[in-house]
């Protein structure tokens, strides 16, 4: 049955409704094409009687909340609305099936599969519960199994909307499904907590193992009676192969009294993986708000950074974090558990000379930092606050988007007339909690000489805490009044460096050099300025990592970090500086991990440290843990594109394309002019084997981004020159070396690759030789840099110098094997594969390709199918098996 004509016509400018996918007791689901984003979606239309009962206002409120639940195992909401009198929302169209479909086919699942599905669903629920959302309708129909092996929990929006405080169960619509709902839910209890979802998940796991739900009966009343009068059944009674610990965990989850169950669904997931000896296995579920193991941006191959690591460095120095992949609690403005107040410090407006804008930013940044030291306050990170500079949005709207209770706004005027230098700061604390009009909670004008600017910042933080009823410990008061430097000129240079580095949306070597210059001036004026030394070290590591590697620069990064450590050994930024250094220059992941872990021990909510750790962990095989770190960081910085980018990279490498698409779409919505966001969409489409869609993304992106800059970006990162269409290739061949930061190695190899692709072997050899000369010079200067050796091998391959090419490619792989770094090691393997193909060694190339498809990376059978790099292998039986996914 098709969609109603009125709705179909009303949505025609946004969606093309193709066919019905299914219907249930609450909604009809259609497959539709999202015209704005060129993607398939599942369009759910609520049944008319349900829509009338629910009402558009409540529906939109709850759907908006569901849309903010961004987690690798949650099927998020894309869009929603009221059209032609009907309520609807869209979600990603998942290639796969529901758990119900699989149970109908198999009835009982292998134990390992059942535990994996339950654990991944538990991760989703644990995340949602920590952000104040209870699902209320966990059942096999709402658990989706994607083709790439991931589990997604669906339908948070409808279940929550129906089960809210308005108690819609009284209207005749049952919230929940009898076979899976908890006793308290079946009894109509309106104050449900997360343990109701725990009960339902336990029921689903029981069914996956036993082949039927734990309690069955001809009617809902019969099921409820059994649930209340019979003890939870043992799954081992019907499936003796189930481990005793799993059986015990399920029975505890099914306890009729909520207090007798696990306290959280996370504890349940951990109990499922307890070995017979009682030790917890490595698959335990990390809490998304627990203290995370701590950070660092892994070593990024220069020129072709593997994005999981690259974004971490970007987030690290640029802003201390950032993105939009989590939500704080059940509704913006409800104070967090334990009475924590959530505060967002918006950029203070500069009322003085426009050249002094950086100073106003510095004042608001320092106030934000000081408030973050106050126990009882949770402060939104800088990245998410920046987009509200000069905003016309209402305070309540901003608070809702950020998940904040209070907004701190302000103005700054730096007056320099008459030989005096005074600062006037006028902050205002706005109570923007929902259910009331925004109102001023506190405001005051501070007028002081420039020498007292640090005291003004401390006073503002103290007054805000006092206005919110938060008592300050003596140690906190000492922290708030601590001065970063006694030298105001040094502080001024430092703020200029912060303005440059934190204003970059992508890695920019030119601006990094500018920032380094300001930081160097700051420490020259005050050699005891510890934070400036730490920032200088971090900036130097990033420049080393994203430009031509210079050993002298790497050594300067280490010296600056050590100087900062001697001056202020317990400063979290010092650990971030060392993490960046060890993760990108000596490529010591273990040391980088230790540095970030210690930093997070001191500052568990530091977004930069969390993001850095999330970049290191994939290198040592902790992919799930990395996703959890990003979820934690996103709660603290819900509107920054950097975490979105890193999450998209992580899931593309895991070949979880639906999840990666959701992350990349969010990134595009946040930063349409940032070349990294469409780049991620391109990578994801290539992983699926869809070259046409990848090129459509590029065509859409150059409407917002300078084409030359974007084409250079694509040709440089992950060698995507071949994805460009003919005209774009021609434009790229016209780009000068300056488009590649004057790195003639990068410039030359891109031109060589494009000419080779276009059949001009003479020009390809000319520019391959230009690249060879540059890469040889760079390798001599930085002999321990694996990327220079890998790319030198490729350049030599184009020149037909077989023995030298293979030697350089092997050297890079030996320097960073996959066993040492699962995140970046595959990149060097791929360059060796390319080298082997150029010198006529297809079987050796296949030896590496076969192993690469068994580990996380961008390559996939679909990618191999469309990438002309692998044309020499098309008729090889081993390659055909790889493309077919049967190797």
Q: Would you write up a description of this structure?
A:
With 887 residues, the protein is of the alpha+beta class. Helices cover 52% and strands 10% of the residues. It has 39 helices and 15 strands. Strands 9, 10, 11, 12, 13, 14 and 15 form a seven-stranded mixed sheet that branches. The protein is globular, with a radius of gyration of 28 Å. Residues 159-175 and 275-338 have low confidence and may be disordered.
The first-to-last residue Cα distance is 41 Å
Approximate helicity band: 40-55%
Largest sheet: 7 strands, mixed
Radius of gyration: 28 Å
Low-confidence stretches: 159-175, 275-338
What number is the mean pLDDT? 82
Shape estimate: globular
**Fraction in beta strands:** 5-15%
- Quickly give the structural class: alpha+beta
| Number of E strands | 15
Can you count the helices?
39
Key structural traits:
15 strands, seven-stranded mixed β-sheet, five-stranded antiparallel β-sheet, 887 residues, 52% helix, alpha+beta, 39 helices, globular
What's the SSE blueprint?
Blueprint: H1 5-10, E1 15-23, E2 27-34, E3 39-46, H2 48-54, H3 56-67, E4 79-83, E5 86-92, E6 96-98, H4 99-106, H5 111-130, E7 143-146, E8 151-153, H6 156-162, H7 183-186, H8 195-210, H9 220-229, H10 244-253, H11 265-271, H12 307-318, E9 341-345, E10 349-350, H13 357-371, E11 377-379, H14 382-386, H15 395-402, E12 406-415, E13 422-431, E14 439-443, E15 446-449, H16 453-467, H17 474-481, H18 488-502, H19 509-525, H20 530-546, H21 551-567, H22 572-584, H23 589-602, H24 607-616, H25 623-636, H26 641-653, H27 657-670, H28 676-688, H29 691-701, H30 707-716, H31 726-733, H32 744-757, H33 761-781, H34 786-798, H35 802-815, H36 825-838, H37 842-852, H38 861-866, H39 877-884
Helix pairs in contact: 3-6, 5-8, 5-11, 8-10, 12-20, 12-24, 12-26, 13-16, 13-18, 18-19, 19-20, 20-21, 20-22, 21-22, 22-23, 22-24, 23-24, 24-25, 25-26, 26-27, 26-28, 27-28, 28-29, 30-31, 32-33, 33-34, 34-35, 34-36, 35-36, 36-37
């Amino acid at each position: 049955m098709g969609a109603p004509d009125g709705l179909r016509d009303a949505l025609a400018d946004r969606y093309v409704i193709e066919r019905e996918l299914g219907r249930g007791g609450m909604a009809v689901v259609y497959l539709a094409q999202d015209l704005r984003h060129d993607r398939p979606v599942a369009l759910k239309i609520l049944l008319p009687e349900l829509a009338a009962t629910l009402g558009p206002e409540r529906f939109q409120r709850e759907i908006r909340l569901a849309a903010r639940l961004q987690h690798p195992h949650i099927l998020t909401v894309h869009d929603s609305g009221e059209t032609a009198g009907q309520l609807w929302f869209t979600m990603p169209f998942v290639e796969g099936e529901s758990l119900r479909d699989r149970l109908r086919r198999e009835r009982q699942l292998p134990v390992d599969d059942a535990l994996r599905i339950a654990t991944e669903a538990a991760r989703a629920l644990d995340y949602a519960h920590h952000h104040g959302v209870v699902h209320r309708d966990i059942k096999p129909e709402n658990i989706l199994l994607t083709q790439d092996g991931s589990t997604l929990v669906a339908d948070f929006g409808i279940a929550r909307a129906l089960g809210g405080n308005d108690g819609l169960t009284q209207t005749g619509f049952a919230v929940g499904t009898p076979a899976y709902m908890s006793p308290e839910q079946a009894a109509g209890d309106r104050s449900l907590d997360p343990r109701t979802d725990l009960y339902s998940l336990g029921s689903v796991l029981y069914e996956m193992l036993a082949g039927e739900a734990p309690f069955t009966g001809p009617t809902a009343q019969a099921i409820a009676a059994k649930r209340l009068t019979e003890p939870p059944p043992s799954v081992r009674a019907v499936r003796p192969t189930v481990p005793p610990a799993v059986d015990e965990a399920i029975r505890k989850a099914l306890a009729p009294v909520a207090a007798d169950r696990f306290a959280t669904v996370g504890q349940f997931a951990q109990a499922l993986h307890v070995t017979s000896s009682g030790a917890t296995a490595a698959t335990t579920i990390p809490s998304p708000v627990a203290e995370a193991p701590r950070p660092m941006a892994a070593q990024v191959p220069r020129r072709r950074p593997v994005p999981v690591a690259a974004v971490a460095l970007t987030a690290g120095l640029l802003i201390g974090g950032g993105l939009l992949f989590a939500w704080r609690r059940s509704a913006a403005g409800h104070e967090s558990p334990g009475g924590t107040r959530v505060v967002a410090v918006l950029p203070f407006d500069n009322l003085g000379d426009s050249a002094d804008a950086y100073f106003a930013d510095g004042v608001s940044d320092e106030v934000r930092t000081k408030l973050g030291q106050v126990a009882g306050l949770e402060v939104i990170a800088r990245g998410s606050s920046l987009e509200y500079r000069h905003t016309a949005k209402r305070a309540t709207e901003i608070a809702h988007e950020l998940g904040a209770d209070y907004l701190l706004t302000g103005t700054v005027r730096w007056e320099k007339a008459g030989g005096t230098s005074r600062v006037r700061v006028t902050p205002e604390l706005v109570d923007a909690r929902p259910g009331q009009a925004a109102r001023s909670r506190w405001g005051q004008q501070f007028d002081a000489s420039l020498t007292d600017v640090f005291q003004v910042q401390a006073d503002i933080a103290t007054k805000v805490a006092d206005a919110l009823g938060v008592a300050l410990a003596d140690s906190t008061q000492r922290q708030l009044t601590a001065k970063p430097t006694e030298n105001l000129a040094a502080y001024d240079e430092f703020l200029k460096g912060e303005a440059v580095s934190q204003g970059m949306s992508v890695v920019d070597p030119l601006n990094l050099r500018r920032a380094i210059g300001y930081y160097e001036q700051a420490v020259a004026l005050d050699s005891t300025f510890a934070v400036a030394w730490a920032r200088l070290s971090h900036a130097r590591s990033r420049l080393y990592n994203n430009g031509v590697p210079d050993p002298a620069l790497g050594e300067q990064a280490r010296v600056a970090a050590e100087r900062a450590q001697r001056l202020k050994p317990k400063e979290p930024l010092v650990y971030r500086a060392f993490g960046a250094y060890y993760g990108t220059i000596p490529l010591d992941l273990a040391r980088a991990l230790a540095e970030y872990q210690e930093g997070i021990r001191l500052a568990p909510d530091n977004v930069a440290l969390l993001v850095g750790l999330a970049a290191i962990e994939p290198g040592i095989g902790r992919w799930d843990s990395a996703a959890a770190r990003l979820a934690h960081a996103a709660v603290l910085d819900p509107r920054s594109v950097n975490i979105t980018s890193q999450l998209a990279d992580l899931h593309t490498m895991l070949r979880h394309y639906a999840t990666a698409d959701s992350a990349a779409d969010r990134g595009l919505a946040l930063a349409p002019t940032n070349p990294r966001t469409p780049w991620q969409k391109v990578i994801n489409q290539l992983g699926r084997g869809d070259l046409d869609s990848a090129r459509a993304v590029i065509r859409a992106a150059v409407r917002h981004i300078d084409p030359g800059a974007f084409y250079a970006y694509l040709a440089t990162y992950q060698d995507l020159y071949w994805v460009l269409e003919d005209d774009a290739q021609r434009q790229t061949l016209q780009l000068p070396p300056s488009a590649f930061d004057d790195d003639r190695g990068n410039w030359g190899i891109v031109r060589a690759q494009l000419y080779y692709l276009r059949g001009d072997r003479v020009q390809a050899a000319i520019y391959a030789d230009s690249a060879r000369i540059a890469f040889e010079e760079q390798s001599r200067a930085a002999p321990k840099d694996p990327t220079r050796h890998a790319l030198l091998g490729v350049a030599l391959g184009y020149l037909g110098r077989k023995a030298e090419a293979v030697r350089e490619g092997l050297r890079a792989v030996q320097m960073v094997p996959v066993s040492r770094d699962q995140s970046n090691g595959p990149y060097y393997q791929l360059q060796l594969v390319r080298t082997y193909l150029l010198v006529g060694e297809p079987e050796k190339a296949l030896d590496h390709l076969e192993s690469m498809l068994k580990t996380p990376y961008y390559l996939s059978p679909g990618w191999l199918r469309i990438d002309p790099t692998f044309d020499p292998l098309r008729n090889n039986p081993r390659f055909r098996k790889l493309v077919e996914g049967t190797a």
